[in-house]
Amino acid sequence: MNQKDLSELKKHFVPADDLLVIRRVFSTFIDSEKTLRCRSVRSFAEIPQEEMSVLYTTLSRILKGKLGKALIEYEFPNEVYEEDQPQNLLWQLLENGLDDEAQMEKYIAHLTEKLEYPLPYAVFIAQCTYTVFEKNKMGEKNKYDSREFHFLIGAVCPVESRVDGLIYDEDENNIIRKTRFDRVVAEAPTDGFLFPTFTGRGPDVNHVMYFAKKPKEPNISLVEEVLGCHYTLSAEEEKETFRAILDKGVGEELNLQVIASVNEKIQDYARTFKDEPEPPVVSDIFVRDVLLDSGVSQDRAEAAQALYKEATDGNYFIASNLTDTKTTLSTGGVTVSISGDATDKITTKEIDGRRFLMISLEDPEITVNGYQMKM
Q1: Which residues contact 272 (CB under 8 A, 6 or more apart)?
Q2: Which of 116, 162, 249, 368 could disulfide-pair with 182, CB 3.0 to 4.6 Å?
Q3: Cα 150–chain centre separation
Q4: Cα end-to-end distance, the chain, whole Å
Q5: Among 133, 151, 153, which residue's Cα sits nearest to residue 143?
Q6: Is the peptide bond before 196 cis (omega within 30 degrees of 0)?
């Protein structure tokens, strides 16, 4: 599933669009003891308008993440298509349109048992249909040639308990202490999924899209236990792994100029191919060449290339995951942030046996905490 496919699906996932329709919605609440407290399957058309609007907001957020960061596509291992395995369970839900009571019972029992979650939570799973019209070479829609893409979109939302506080009581016409125990379902899901993926404007039942609100904190139990996929590194983990590879491979040659140059060259590469259907990835050969172009010796560049090839095993990291928008230097309680186009103003020097970070002050105006500093 590429950015173009995702954008098409996201564009139509709005209440006013009649090409993408939510048919049915499954809802459940699971407490901190993993006890299923309630559940329902309803026709979406019968849900009150205000609640319908909230559900749209919640479910649509699953599609608003960035590919490669908040949204990661996973391939199902072969064994999970077997009966009562994760892929097969999702397929059965999709085939039966959330209508099979026994199948729903089986899936929610699987989810409740496998999902590790720090709070009580609610789960919403919607059965949707998107009418896909064929397009000609000019990108124009053929209104006489269409097919239906059926899919499930699921959202996991934390449930907050609210007990204390003051409220205005209309019956008493007074401000009083709240005595009722409320459980409020957050509109913003922390995790979610799309099955099957919308690939080449059609279904791919061998892949599932996982959503994480915080890409640095993915719920691995949802990926591995609930969906049955092999977890891959998050965007932040890719960056940390890449840093460790350069630190070990380049060694003492990893100076300020090399770090800034590598960051800039990978950023340029990511920008050049940002409109491609798939996010650009960094190959091991690219790593070697970038290091050589940045002034690293042949031996060190090839050492980093070998480490990167071993760490990725062919599943190369996404270029945009490896860069920083600014260069930050930190040492002994001092932190200096440098924008990408100003790294040439920073140098390191050794004077009388002491090491210094030198900042070129070509601009006569310097501010400190908003104050104009006098030179």
Answers
A1: 280
A2: 162
A3: 23
A4: 56
A5: 133
A6: yes
- Give the residues across from 182 on adjacent strands: 162
pLDDT value of residue 65: 83
What pLDDT does residue 28 have? 92
Q: How far is 359 from 171, CA to CA, in rounded Å? A: 67
pLDDT higher at 362 or 29: 29
What is the number of H-type helices and E-type strands within the chain? 9, 20
DSSP-assigned states of every residue in 324-347: -SEEEEEETTEEEEEEGGGGGGEE
The pLDDT of residue 164 is 63
Total residue count of the chain as it appears in this document: 375
**Residue 312 vs residues 169, 170, 177, 306: alpha-carbon distances, Å:** 60, 62, 57, 10
Give, as one character, the DSSP assignment of residue 117.
Answer: -
Range 286-295 average pLDDT: 96
Find residue 329's DSSP bridge partners.
Answer: 336
Residue 295 and residue 20 in contact, taking contact as beta carbons nearer than 8 Å: no
Query: Three-state DSSP class for 261?
Result: helix
Closest listed residue to residue 111, CA positions, set 231, 227, 230: 227
Q: What is the CA radius of gyration of the chain?
A: 26
Phi and psi for 314 in degrees, rounded to 5?
90, -15
The per-residue pLDDT for range 133-169, each reduced to its tens digit, is: 887 777 777 778 889 999 999 999 998 766 666 767 7
pTM: 0.77
In the three-class reduction of DSSP (H, G, I as helix; E, B as strand; rest coil), residue 5 is classed as helix
Backbone phi, psi, residue 244, to 5°: -65, -35
Distance CA 265, CA 257 (A): 12
- Element of type H or E holding 368: strand 367-368
Residue 282 and residue 267 in contact, taking contact as beta carbons nearer than 8 Å = no
